[in-house]
Amino acid sequence: MRKVAVIGVGQSKFGELWDYSFRDIVLSAGIEAIEDAGLEGREIEAMYIGNMSGGRFLAQEHIAALIADYSGLAELHIPSTRVEGADASGGLALRQAYLAVASGLHDIVIAAGAEKVTDVGEKAVEILSSGLDREWEVFNGVTLASLFAIIARLHMDKYGTRAEDLAMISVKNHKNAVRNPKAQFKREISIDVALSSPYVAEPLRVFDCAPVSDGAAVIVLASEEVARKYTDTPIYISASAQATDYIALSSRRDFTTMDAVVFAAREAYKKAGIEPKDIDVAEVHDSFTIAELLAYEDLGFVEKGKGAELIREGVTELDGELPVNPSGGLKACGHAAGATGIRQAVEITLQLRGEAKGRQVDAETGLTMNIGGTGATAVVTIFRR
Amino acid sequence: MLPRFWRKIKYRYNLIGTKCENCNTYYYPPRNLCPKCRRKSKIVEVKFSGKGEVLSYSVIHEAPENMKDQKPYIVALIKLEEGPIITAQLVCDSSEVKKGMKVKAVFRKCGEEGSAGVIYYCTKFVPENL
Q1: In chain A, what percentage of residues exceed pLDDT 70?
Q2: Number of H helices, E strands in chain B
Q3: Out of A61-75, A185-199, B56-70, B79-93, which region has the weakest mean confidence (pLDDT)?
Q4: A4-122+213-235: which CATH topology?
Q5: Chain B residues within 8 A (CB-CB) of chain A?
Q6: Separation CA A377–CA A10 (nearest Å)
Q7: Given this model, what pLDDT does residue A125 score?
Q8: Across the interface, do A126 and B64 touch by the CB < 8 Å criterion?
Q9: Which residues of chain B have pLDDT under 50?
Q10: Do B77 and A149 touch (CB under 8 A)?
Q11: How high is the ipTM of this complex?
């Protein structure tokens, strides 16, 4: 396998982008990434697009050809492929693009993630629940939030995690997003506001839940040799790993562990030849605050049951020892389903290049963790300066 | 959506799942293949007693469109006495529910497709002493 580098990144604003179409947001991210890489356009050999549900959000399938077309690449006739794994679609697209370059098949490949969610109004939440088991979870009245709520309650019972710990994760991510011009919520919140917000699914409240957002993100990958022609600051992907688990939460081995994350992380650390303590910065899938807390444990940053200690001790704050979600995470930067996995990679690239401006942390090695639904798919990627 | 729902009515209404006779593990929802034995699976259908206990739960306040009339409602992880764990609604006052509570299965209305649409039924749970 060849060494793979990130040579360009771009991201649309995340949020309720009423004035912009699906094509608009993809293009804004794409143009930014192409310019960042210093490409003309014709050098692109293939594209992989993470998109969770164009069919239900837009009644538009065939997203991959559409995006290649509106990116001005129709007459180059390059292969363009949509990849789907619920809200891990972006992470999967990144992995496919990585494999295409690592294998030697292509030299320059685009990995994109895009989702236009808000056009369907209130239906968005119901469509997002299609990442769960529709037949045996959703039909019975289960929502995505209620499953994470069930996990949160078990974690509280078993390990003494408190609602305050979860609220602190939300407060941290909101604080970070203030420094991110692309974020959906650029406003600090107090712990009291978080803890007095209405319940969505007890014990989770509004401020424990990521919003549904529109957004797109694009990343350009190249082989090591080709990368040198385009950038002096290539960011290398030192490992990409993916795992699955039972789709329904009720079938899993341990409800307070995301085994797919544990497996993907273990594989990624092994491939990169590093340990969890070598990670300097991480972007993790905080679709709910409890998911970020589980990520601390399942990625091996702290032992099982002790996730709350990291937030209580400030370890994962922007100025902490291991900043997590410097972008504001899904909670405050926004969660645009299939775009999220790529957006995380964009953030880690900026952090490792030293271009994250007001939210810059000191880092040489970064990690992204993207899951689908309650964790039936997990993708872990490790980046290195 | 309808055929997809109807096909599994037998299992939804009667709490019928499966058992792998090779390893003696019970499954609900039903499976055609045992994840422990795979090709050695010997799957048979089993009707569960409907008795179980609550492992964890959530009271849902933000409900999807077709469930709005019912909110707030409770969903729970329930361990059936035969072993499998399922996610289902729990019909009781939210102040009553607690971890370890004994429950039993009942046949209930589950949802509907709009005000004039088809009504769905499913298995829910109530406190055992009810």
Answers
A1: 100
A2: 2, 8
A3: B56-70
A4: Peroxisomal Thiolase; Chain A, domain 1 (3.40.47)
A5: 4-5, 8, 12, 29, 35, 55-65, 67, 70, 73, 75-77, 84-89, 94, 99, 110-111, 120, 122, 124
A6: 25
A7: 87
A8: yes
A9: none
A10: no
A11: 0.96
